[in-house]
Each structure stands twice: as structure tokens, then as C-alpha cells.
Amino acid sequence: MSDTRTNPTGGSGDGDTSVLANLDSTEMKGMYWYLALLACIGGFLFGYDTSVIGSVLGFIPYHLNSFWTGYLVAGASLGAAVGALGAGPLTDRFGRKSLLMADAAIYAAGALLSAFTVNAAMLIASRTLIGLAVGADSAIATAYIAEFAPKGRRGQLSIIQQWMITVGILISYLIALAVFAIAPGSAKSADWRIILGIGAVPAIIAVLLRARMPESPRWLIQQGRFADTSEALAKLGVEVSEEEVRRTAGRIEQVEQDQRQERKRLWTPGVKRALTVVCLFFVFQQITGINVPFYYGPTLLGGLFKNPGDSAVHAAMAGLVAAAILGAVNVVATYFGFRWIDKFGRRPLALWGWAGMAVFMLVASAGVAWLTGTPKVVVVMVGFSIFIASFAIGVGGTGWLLQGEVFPTAVRGRAAATGAGVNWIANFALIEAFPAMQKAIGLPWVMVVLSGLSLLAIVTISRVLPETKNLSVEEVVAVFDEQAEKSPLQSSNAG
Ligand code: BGC
User: Does the C-beta of 492 come closer than 6 Å to ligand 1?
Assistant: First the structure.
């Protein structure tokens, strides 16, 4: 940190107490965990709804050609890209809370419509709705958290999003397993509807609880709504008068004006730089192959787990068992990301994460290429498990955290949403490209390519990603502004 940098959140020694500094340095309270959890219910549904379709696809009784079958799986990602991009301007205009409530309502509608669907067109429409909600929610959740979190705990609070995603993925496999186990004869009638429809339960709870959450204090200040800001801060346990809020707003304005000319203030070179870094991070988060074991795992691994002569339902259940094991590894490993993100920082976690992914994707690839029988199952499962754990600790949550924390409040919604949109487009691209690549060069070589991409991620991200742990969100913005003044290819300082 440069000590000449102006710090709009306070602590400048001029005796003026900034309300955001109060928020940044306040003790962790139960309320913060609760709000982060509430912001991340959408993360749970993101995980649930993106992976659940793979479990039921074989049992949907409509005649769908390969385009529409593909759309049911990958269309959610494409819809999510649209939802994310659309959410940006809306949340900067209408606030974080209104958008989070609207997303939860769309999630609920999508899940209910899927459950009671009467034909293929209605199912496709409901999945599209869910895709929009996944995207919009993923665009805003960590931005909302970054706007109230104390700076030393922002990483942990934001990693809850990743954690909820992983729990959603795991629960989707477990619910599908339970429903198929209870009523294997109804796989093509009631089961798939129940499995898709259950997503409505957390969504409805989210609508009700999110209605009572405070609006983001940083967004309110930015809108000039000072009385509402002091009310929101009171809900967050920080008691300040409207006048104090007004003074802080004046200081932020002053600093921003000092830094840039008025007209260029919003999209400074620093903001553009931060956006480039987030987009690069997200592209590598996706193209290094995390969703290969998740989306294709049940099919790839099901064959290794099923017994000869299994019925379609039992074969699907064998794939789900393999996927659930990987899903559980994902949940447990994310805990370490949560523990370490504010301690070791974003950079080391991300770079070591990709290193682990590069090595263990190769291990899994060797298993697929050279082994058979039980040794193959063991090596592939161990390889995929450590690959997933490395992603979960360093790469998954870190991406969503950076997306929430690196932009200034005035453009946070739009910038974070653009990052999320890029994530979903990269997600879609890999899902679409994977089968064709597999056909062209075979699975083991595809895995070697993915491992190479993890190495490329290390080389690229280590050059551009600064450390942002323990800085206030306003200070993070200043770090990127400083960087933008240097050469774009200059190495980032690690701390
Ligand atoms: C990624 C998803 C992925 C999930 C796995 C998220 O961070 O954005 O694409 O499925 O992690 O845990």
C-alpha cells in the first residue's frame, strides 16, 4: 500500500470519523453471517439448478432433438450470461436488495413451472427463466456482501457464495439419488418433476427473508440517500447520524474528484484494468475444466461405477454416487478456502489452486489413458478429487470474491455483472466445446490441454492480479488505479 494514497474510508488522521471506516473496522457480528448467507441462497440455487438437469435429463419424457436437449443443459449458462449482463444496470439503478428479491422470485417461478410443466416448450421456457435468475443473482451477490463486510472478513463472507454453490451442487445429487431410490418406478413420471421443483423451496424462503434485509449502505450513500444509509447502518449495528453519513459522502466525492476529471470518473483506467483482471480470472476459472467432472462426471464416471445389467435408473444412480463423492470433496475443500482467503490472501490461493489443478488433471488423464479396472477408478477419482479441491480452495470462490470487491460503488453493479457475464459465456463455451474436443483428440489429450490451460492461468494471472486482502473496497479501487498507470504487462506486487 502506498502511504500517500488518500483513504476515503477514514483513518487519515484528520479527526473526521468516516462511517464506512466504522463499518470496515467493526467487530464481526452474527448479523453479517446471516446477511451473507441470505445473499448467497442464490448461490445455492446456482449450484442446484445448474447440476440438477444432468440427473434428470435421461427421464424427461418429451421428444427433444439434440439441439433442445443441449439447450436444457447448456442453455442455463447462456441464459445466465444474459441475466448477468441485464442485472448490472438494473442493480446500479434500483439497488442490490430489489434485484436480489426479484432474482429469488424468478428462481421460484422457474422451479415451479418446471415441476408443473405440460410440454417441452414450457420446460424450455422455465429453464430459461432459471438461467436468467442464476446469472442475475451471481452478478450481484458478492457485490452486496462487499458493500457491508468489514474489510478483514470480506474474503470469508464472500467465499460463502462459493460454499453455497458447492452445497447446492452436492444437494442436487443427493436429492436426485434419494428420489430415485424411493420411487425408481416413477423416474419418468413424478421423480424428475419433484427433483426440479424442490428448488422452489429455498427460492421462496429467499424472497421472504430478503425482503427484510437492509439495502447496501455503500449503494445508498452513492445515491445520496443519507437518512436511509444511517438506517441501513443501524441494522448493521453501526450507529451514525445522517449528518455523519453526509460528511462521508462528501469525502468520497472529494477523493474521486481529486483522482479523475468529473466526466471520466466512473470508468477510470483503474476500473477498466480491474474489469480486465476479473474477466481474465473468470475465463481461466472456466476453461481450465472445473465443470468437466461436474457436468460430464456422471456420464464419464457412471460407467466405472455401475454393475453389468443395471437398469437405466440404477445406472444413473451409479453416476450420481460418483458425482456426489466429487461434490462432497468440493464442499469440504471450500472450507479451507474460507479459512485461508483473508489469512494468506487472494493471489497465493489462486496461483497454488491452479498449480494443483494442472498436476492432478494430468494424474486423472494418465488414469483414463493407461489404466483399467479398479486402479483406473481409484486414480481417476483421486485425480479429479484433488483437482476439484485445488479449484475449491483457490480458484472458485476467489473469482466471485474479486468480482464483488474490486470495483467502485458507482459502477460496481455494471462492472461485476460484466465479469459474471464473461464467466457464463466461458462456461457455455467449454461445455459446448468439450464433446467435440473429446471426439477429435480423445479424453486423455483433452485433459492434457486443460492442464496446460491451468499453467497458462498461473503465468497470466500472476502478472496482473494484485493482493487485495485487508484493504477497504475504496483502497482496492486505488490499487488498480495505481497499477493502470504502470505498464499493463508489469508484474503485480504480491502484497
Ligand atoms: C463456478 C462454477 C462451478 C462451481 C463448482 C463456481 O465458482 O463458477 O462454474 O460449477 O464453482 O464448485
Answer: no
Distances (CA, A) of 217 to 23, 100, 222, 245: 9, 15, 9, 10
Residue whose CA lies nearest to ligand 1 atom number 5: 166
Would you say the CB of residue 142 lies under 6 angstroms from ligand 1? Answer: no
Q: What is the pLDDT of residues 257-288, one digit of tens each?
A: 655 554 456 788 999 999 999 999 999 999 99
> 389-402 pLDDT, tens per residue?
999 999 999 999 99
Instruction: Give yes or no for residue 390 CB within 6 A of ligand 1.
Output: no
Mutation test residue for ligand 1: of 165, 282, 329, 390, the one with most atoms within 8 Å of CB: 165
Hey, what's the cell of 304?
466405472
- For the stretch 345-382, pLDDT in tens is 999 999 999 999 999 999 999 998 999 888 988 999 99
Closest CA to 397 of 331, 311, 301: 331
Q: Which of 334, 386, 416 is nearest to 44 (CA)?
A: 334
In order of 48, 109, 146, 195, 349, the CA distances from 51 in angstroms are: 6, 18, 27, 11, 26
